[in-house]
Amino acid sequence: MTATLDRIATTVTARRPFDAALALAPARRGPYDPCFHAAADGSIWRTSRQPSGPVTFRITQVDARTARCDAWGPGAPDLVDAVPALLGIHDDATAFAPSHPVLAEAHRRHPDLRIGRTNRVLEALVPAVLEQRVHSVAAYASWRRLVTRFGEVAPGPAPQGMRVSPAAETWRRIPSWEFHRANVDPARSRTIVRCAGVADSLERLVDVPPDEAARRLRSVSGIGVWTAAEVAQRALGDADALSVGDYNLAAIVGWSLTGRPMDDEEMVAYLEPMRPHRYRAVRLLMLSGRAVKPKFGPRTPVTDHRWH
């Protein structure tokens, strides 16, 4: 690790190849996420709110087993300590041996896929709540508006327009009409405010087993199985967290792996033999280029909550 007045840098080297961009990709909430920027040179810029404060960091892949991190801001010391976890360096997929040819081929082509963990629960939870029961494009727009409006300017030499997501206290104090202007209905906005109110307890979930963390997340009103899984995938690096209740996932798994649609119950049963790697299997399916879901009708319209 090296440090200057404004920057802290560290280099991470792993025994096995890893792809930093793949590990960081789930943290991106849409193509215009103000907390995430993929640069033309292949480096990834992100912002975060660490226990010590906001931080901007840049991850650059040096070679198949090495990545460099440069970090700016008060949260830089905490962030550089967390880089191995972010990049999934300790994620172990050696026992994962899928029998389905699509997954087996994807696993062979992407041996460098790692499930990273941010260890920042609220940062993963708020956008997951925004994505409940709405189209991704609408949730991404809401996230961008709220973070741009209430977040902080990213510290350091961040690309233009980057922001740090709001602190828990800020989320708690956002007026209801501002959520409304961001196209967030009252049920989701109340859940966000409720989660921000117990943020300290939620952040401690990184230190408990995944099943217990999911149970405690679901004890918060408005957080169900799907939302808890989405948080576990990103904040906790849970390679088994399956997004049951997703609008498209069961059908995609069914059509792609069996040639017929599935519902959630059938998907859970089908993927049961892949424990504790069900989320890894889904990631590989999406990377395979073989994920399909036939269209049988027009896409449902995007709901605009701002006019009612």
Give a verbal description of the structure.
Helix 10 (210-218) packs across helix 11. The longest helix is centred in the middle third of the chain and has 15 residues, at 136-150. This protein has 308 residues and is an alpha+beta fold. It has helices spanning 20-24, 76-86, 101-109, 121-130, 136-150, 168-173, 176-181, 186-197, 199-203, 210-218, 225-235, 249-258, 264-271, 278-287, and strands spanning 2-3, 7-13, 36-38, 44-50, 53-63, 66-72, 152-153, 163-164. The strands form two sheets. A six-stranded antiparallel beta sheet has the order 1-2-6-5-4-3. The protein has 14 helices and eight strands. Among the domains are: 2-93, 2-Layer Sandwich (TATA-Binding Protein), CATH 3.30.310.20; 121-235, Endonuclease III, domain 1, CATH 1.10.340. It is globular, with a radius of gyration of 19 Å.
Compile the SSE list and pairings.
Elements (H helix, E strand, L loop, with lengths): L1 E2 L3 E7 L6 H5 L11 E3 L5 E7 L2 E11 L2 E7 L3 H11 L14 H9 L11 H10 L5 H15 L1 E2 L9 E2 L3 H6 L2 H6 L4 H12 L1 H5 L6 H9 L6 H11 L13 H10 L5 H8 L6 H10 L21
